[in-house]
Amino acid sequence: MRGHRVVATGRRALGHPDYVQQDLTRTCNFKATPDVVVHAAARSSPWGSERKFHQQNIEATRHVIEFCRSRGRPHLVFISTSAVMYTNAHQFDLDETSPLPSHAINRYAASKRRAEALVQDYEGPWCIVRPRAVFGPGDTVVFPRILKAARTGRLPIIESDQPVKGDLIYIDTLVDYLLRIVELRTTGLYLLTNNCPVLILDFLGSVFARLKLPTPKRRVPVGRAMATAAVLEAAYGLLPFLGEPPLTRFGVSVFAYSKTFDVSKALRDLGPPSVSLGDGVNRFVESLLQNPTP
Fold first, then answer.
1. Per the structure, how many domains does the chain have?
2. Is the terminal CB of the chain with fewer CB neighbours within 10 Å at N or C?
3. Nearest to 42 by CA among 20, 27, 64, 21
4. Would 111 be classed as within a structural domain?
5. Which domain holds residue 136?
């Protein structure tokens, strides 16, 4: 990072001099006294137990804040999610002033919403960012599930009442925004996207074609898809050893309802995206072609 020494933390053991192994679900015990803390660790998944989301997203954030309080209250940058704003309906041009729904769309969103509240109570300077659909090399959340379903022929077309649009953000764009926030000591709440909403089916179709994956053909009405997902969630909830169900209500919602954002505040304070969406997709597809998933 430009002119800064960076110390990273994580649960895994890595042989790097600027890395400290630390499970954030426990009290932070490393000795660094930072100027800025970027809290990016989270359970980012559409599925999981309430206990795991509480431990990894709420308690971990609480421990990070306690660490900051014990180190002179440095600038805290918290990576949240735009999912805290979602409902099972089309939502267009959401911005930082848009009210949050009365009920979170899933456990992940609920846990991040509670973590945001903890950050907002922090006595030092803080910045919360809500990125939308982060993708790029190393993605373990968004595209792996989609590509696996497409590769096995299990990805349906969810029939909505209108073409579904959505915003995304390329990983390098997000990282560069975080660097700007650190360098400018920016505070407050920011929505972050590539400021380039796409038609979801057309966007995925172009990616599938470049990866030589089959185009989804099977059409399922959104009501039936939601009902099927609810049954699967109930069954997998009773039998946790099965892991994540092949279809979740959140997953259906992603394909059934538009989500676009007005990022005028970020454009004004932080500047334009550093990598265009088109260039980001090209880089991502190239990485997948070079390192295909088995």
1. 1
2. C
3. 64
4. yes
5. 8-290
CATH number at residue 65: 3.40.50.720
**Integer CA distances (angstroms), 161 to 131, 229, 256, in order:** 26, 19, 8
Those residues whose C-beta lies under 8 Å from the C-beta of residue 269, and which sit 6 or more positions away, are 184, 186, 190
Angle between helical axes of 222-238 and 249-256 (0-180°, round to 10): 160
pLDDT by residue for the chain (294 residues), tens only, comes to 567 788 888 888 887 888 888 888 888 888 888 999 999 988 888 888 899 999 999 999 999 999 999 999 999 999 999 999 999 999 999 999 999 999 999 999 999 999 999 999 999 999 999 999 999 998 887 888 899 888 888 889 999 999 999 999 999 999 999 999 999 999 999 999 999 999 999 999 999 999 999 989 899 999 999 999 999 999 999 988 888 898 899 999 999 999 999 999 999 999 999 999 999 999 999 999 988 764
pTM above 0.85, yes or no: yes
Closest Cα partner for 149 from 256, 75, 252, 37? 252
Measured over the CA atoms of residue 178, residue 182, residue 184 and residue 186, the dihedral's sign is positive
